[in-house]
Structures are given as C-alpha cells and as structure tokens.
Amino acid sequence: MFENYLKLEFPSIPQNVSFARTIVATFAAQLEFTLAEIEEIRVAISEAVSNCVIHAYPNEVGIVKLELRAEDQLLTIRIQDFGIGIADIEQAKQATYSTQPERMGLGLVFMESFMDEMELISKPAEGTTVVMKKRPERGFANAELSRSS
Amino acid sequence: MFENYLKLEFPSIPQNVSFARTIVATFAAQLEFTLAEIEEIRVAISEAVSNCVIHAYPNEVGIVKLELRAEDQLLTIRIQDFGIGIADIEQAKQATYSTQPERMGLGLVFMESFMDEMELISKPAEGTTVVMKKRPERGFANAELSRSS
Amino acid sequence: MSYCRNIPWKMKGGFHLVIETERIGSNLVVTIDGELDLETSPEFRKVIEEKLDSYKTIRHLILDLKKVHFIDSSGLGVILGRFKRITQDGGRMSAVNVSDQVKRIFELSGLLKIMNIYPDRKDALDNC
Amino acid sequence: MSYCRNIPWKMKGGFHLVIETERIGSNLVVTIDGELDLETSPEFRKVIEEKLDSYKTIRHLILDLKKVHFIDSSGLGVILGRFKRITQDGGRMSAVNVSDQVKRIFELSGLLKIMNIYPDRKDALDNC
Ligand SMILES: Nc1ncnc2c1ncn2[C@@H]1O[C@H](COP(=O)(O)OP(=O)(O)O)[C@@H](O)[C@H]1O
Ligand SMILES: Nc1ncnc2c1ncn2[C@@H]1O[C@H](COP(=O)(O)OP(=O)(O)O)[C@@H](O)[C@H]1O
Fold first, then answer.
1. CB A9 within 8 A of CB A64
2. Could you tell me the pTM of the whole model?
3. ipTM (interface predicted TM)
C-alpha cells in the first residue's frame, strides 16, 4: 500500500498561505488527482490557512500546524491552530457569516464544496482544528498501469 | 526585519527527497537568491535527505526532521535524523569516502561546496544533524526596491 | 481616448502579483498577473481604489483575469467590494478571460449572476 | 543503421523520469527527461544495463541531458558506473546538451575530465 505523510509547522503570516498551497499541491500530486482536483485542494488549503492568520490569531503571530497524509486512495489534511477558537460552529459554517465585516464568509463553504469531507473541531480560547479528506475521482487504478515496452 | 520559518517532518522514503527539494526551493525563493543559487540549495538538500534515507536508516523507514529559517539575509537549514549516526566525522567528509561500495562519497562534498556553511553533528546510535547556511550573494538590498510608479 | 499605464508593481515577500491599469475613455482596464489571496489582495484593492479615487470619470471597470492562476475568498472579497463601489456610483464591472477554475469560484459565490463576463477585452469595451 | 525506440517509461510515485533509448549502429543514445536523484536513479541504471546486456554490439553510449532538470550525487553515481562498464569493454561515453548546472556537478566530481562533452547529438555521433 502506498503511504506517506508530511508534518509542517509555520507562523501565521500572510505569505505562508501561498506557501502552504504549493506544498500541499506538491504532496497531493503523489496521488492520481487531476489538475482540476489539485486546484480544488489549493483553494481549500488557502481558506483554512487564511482563517488561522485572520481569525485564530487576529492580533499576534501564532503557530499553524499542517499534517498531510496519503494513504492509498485518500488524502487527509489536518490544519490546527491554538488561537481564539469558534464559539458556534454551525453559525460559522453558514454562507456569508463572518465575524469580520470586510470578509464574505465563504471560506468554510469553499472548503466543504471542494473537499469530500470536512470536519471542524474548536474550543474558544484553545484553538481550532480542521480535518479535510479527498479522493481522486477516477480512483487509484491508473497508478498501477506502468507504461513500458 | 524579514523573518519566517518552516518545520517539517516526514518518513525517510526515496520519493521525499524530491519533495524536500521542492519545498526548500519554494521557501528559499522568499530571499533574494538567484536561480543558480536556488539550484545549489536544491543539490545540498537532496544530498542531506538522501543520506538520511540511505545511511541513517539503512534497514527501516525512520523520521527526518527539516527546519528552515529565513532571517533577514540568511537561510538556515537544519536536517536531523535519529538513525545510526557517524563514528568518524572527518573521515565521512572526505571526498570519495563512502560506507556503501556503490556510492561516490560526494554528498557531503557537494553540501560543503554549494552552501556557505555546513556543520555536521553526530553520535553513533543516536543520529545525525546537519546545519547549513547560505546568503544570497547579491545581498538583500534589492528587496527594498519596490518598483511602483 | 486617454491612456495611462502603470509600471508592473511587485510584492515584497514570497509571491508576486503584477497589476497593470489602463484607462481607455471612461473605462479602467485592470490586468492582474499572479495569485489573488490573503497576501496579495490588499494591494490589489489599494491599486484599484487609488485609480477610482483619482479618475472620477471612470464608469466601467474591466478586470482582465487571463493571468490569474489562483483566486480564493480573499481575492473574491476584493472583487465584490469593487463591484459594490462601481455599481453604487451607477457604473458597471466586467471580467474577461475568465478561466474555468475562476468561473467556478465566481459561481459558488453568486458573483457570476451579477457581473458581466466577456470572452475578451474587445468584447467588454464594445459593450460599454 | 538499425533503430529501436522505447515508449516513455513512467515512475510510480511523486516524480517522473522519462527515459528513451535509441540504437543507431553501434551507438546507444539515451535521452533523459526529469530529475536524476535517489528515487529515479535505480531505474535509470536498470534501463541502460538492460540495453547494454541485450545489444552486445554497442560501443558508444551517448547521454542526451537536454531535459535533465536536476542531478545530484546519486544520479552522478549511475552515470559514473555506466562510464566504467562501457570503457572497460573498450567503448566510450559522451554527454550532449549539458546545462551549466549539470556541468558544474560533473566538474566537482572529476567526471568532466574523463568524459566527452559535445554540444549536440550530431556532434557526438560524428565523433564516433
Ligand atoms: N481558525 C479559526 N479560528 C477562529 N475562528 C475561525 C477560524 N476559522 C473560521 N472562523 C470563524 O468562522 C467564520 C467564518 O469563516 P469563513 O467561512 O472562512 O469566512 P471568512 O473568513 O470570510 O470570515 C469566521 O468569520 C470566523 O469567525
Ligand atoms: N545521516 C547520516 N547518517 C549516517 N551516516 C551518514 C549520514 N550522512 C553521511 N553518513 C556517512 O558519511 C559517508 C559519506 O557521505 P556522503 O559524502 O554523503 O557520501 P555517500 O552518500 O556517497 O556515501 C556515508 O557513506 C555514510 O557512512
């Protein structure tokens, strides 16, 4: 069985959002994702890491932990912060709900739309963890077709 | 002062060598390195992570920790394994010295040639840590030249 | 037809965004090259706001997204904010060269229903 | 002039290496597309060894490195190993389309002193 993982830790600064996207896209490319699927993963990661930067640590730079796991046909992404947390998770998930007037409240909506599964765990003053999962749609069967003559 | 860091952990499997290269190159691109300098960094990382895969854990898959730090004009890379370690560091550093007959003994030579500084710390049965540093040759001055009209 | 052009503007830090603006009559054409996210969006907003502040005659904002390799809700937020400003002033906003990926993001957010999308710049200008 | 060609061969896992071999008389031209490192080198070695085993008449190995985007000491080790085999049998080895980066790696290892480097494939074949 194919298996790999990557654990990351970085500070919650805006330039690490694009960084996290690039790393996750490179990691995800180990599985048989299409380019369109990789784009979806990039958006989901971008939203999750942006939320750590803006919401989890609004007035300071905090630690973001990112864990990637590839197990056979499944990519699992875990993003954790130790910031202010979310009091009402159902409310947070609603489209257009945002605690910041300038923002659109679409981050969690995009994460749910673009990944197969999304779970949000949070406790005020302790932090938030997002777990997202995605399988390549056309499956992993192609990976075994090694073309050689 | 510009400052950023990235801590990584991954298993010592061959496909993570190219992976580590890509991540470090992306991280290093935050500083004002030339493309040729980025290539040098890619070789150094490739050698260091390959050594963890081949030498540190010859018969098992072990843990590799990679720490990247960008502080102003300086990139610091720290690669750590918890493998078999090196008994005689001076001997290991010699060109063409290798404990594996098929290999060339050039990895540590390339790391020293391509980085500004390299330090090797090791203890048999405990593991090995390599610390490498590099500064962009043309300095950081250019980064302040924000071009706008 | 008046004409003005910005020298490409470069982000400090890891990733780059290049924004070029071009005034064609009462149209402001904004060409974006790069990724629109949390890091780059504030500057994207700033550049457009400054142009709208200084050229009071602008009635139509045209975003050329040909080279937008990535957009998330932060980038979308800035586009929606500019849409609100220009339409409140009685103007219009269009996007051209919109990739499938960006179109999908626009669709999920509802922006696709309220903003004009044209295949290219010429089409957008012809419809002014 | 006999001729044989491999269908591109693809690595499983993260990164790809495509190796094409072409037999031109007593020459074996090996075109490498990708990164030569710890992961990809074993297959690189395998493909060349198999060709050398099956075509006993090969006297000259030509490596076309135009699309080698990366090489480290693992890739270099395989090249040196093949160099040893072909020269022991009285043959020769050349490399063509060598980038500055690859040339520097060859230089540091001493390989540049013992291996022929030609600008392109035609030059290498003319010197057979
Ligand atoms: N990591 C987090 N830490 C604290 N609060 C969060 C976090 N992620 C999301 N939230 C809360 O959930 C709300 C909705 O998030 P989201 O859908 O991403 O939209 P937006 O980022 O536009 O506000 C945020 O406004 C914030 O209050
Ligand atoms: N991380 C490590 N753990 C254990 N031994 C190591 C490690 N790195 C290097 N060595 C030792 O140092 C020697 C020289 O390493 P190097 O110069 O990279 O050449 P090579 O990989 O070709 O052997 C190796 O053969 C090995 O014995």
1. yes
2. 0.89
3. 0.87
